[in-house]
Design brief:
This protein is an all-beta fold. The protein has no helices and eleven strands. The strands form two sheets. Strands 2, 4, 5, 6, 9, 10 and 11 form a seven-stranded mixed β-sheet that branches. A hairpin with a 4-residue loop joins strand 7 and strand 8.
Length: about 130
């Protein structure tokens, strides 16, 4: 069974940092682009960042550029999202997702991804 599990969420004050992890079980991430998405209450799911299989291609939504960094460690079957200088508007459930069809060009469209994790809550509040 293909499964993604997010971890590392929690409550943090504005300006703080968190690192989310996305770990695969039942399959190898070596062949999958990975995207991070988030959904706040009452809002649509939006793409935050993605990284290609090789790691050479990665991109970020404008709202997180310069604050978030995506990386991958294929040996650990894990992708990370380092989130710095967090803002209250970053509060959301964060999901990771996997795409095998476009390993180097997956992009931030959620419809491109077909394996999803259950999500991790990130709350930024003082």
């Amino acid at each position: 069974q293909l499964q993604l599990v997010e971890s590392g969420g929690g409550l943090v004050q504005p300006g703080g940092s968190l690192r989310l992890s996305c770990t695969a079980s039942g399959f190898s991430l070596d062949y999958y682009a990975i995207g991070w998405f988030r959904q706040a209450p009452g809002k649509e799911r939006e793409g935050v960042s993605w990284i290609s299989v090789s790691g050479r291609n990665r991109n970020y939504d404008d709202s997180v550029k310069g604050r978030f960094t995506i990386s991958r460690d294929n040996a650990k079957n894990t992708v990370y999202l380092q989130m710095n200088n967090l803002k209250p508007e970053d509060t959301a459930v964060y999901y990771c997702a996997a795409n095998r069809d476009d390993p180097e060009e997956a992009g931030l469209g959620y419809f491109n991804y077909d394996v999803w994790g259950q999500g991790a809550q990130v709350t930024v509040s003082s």
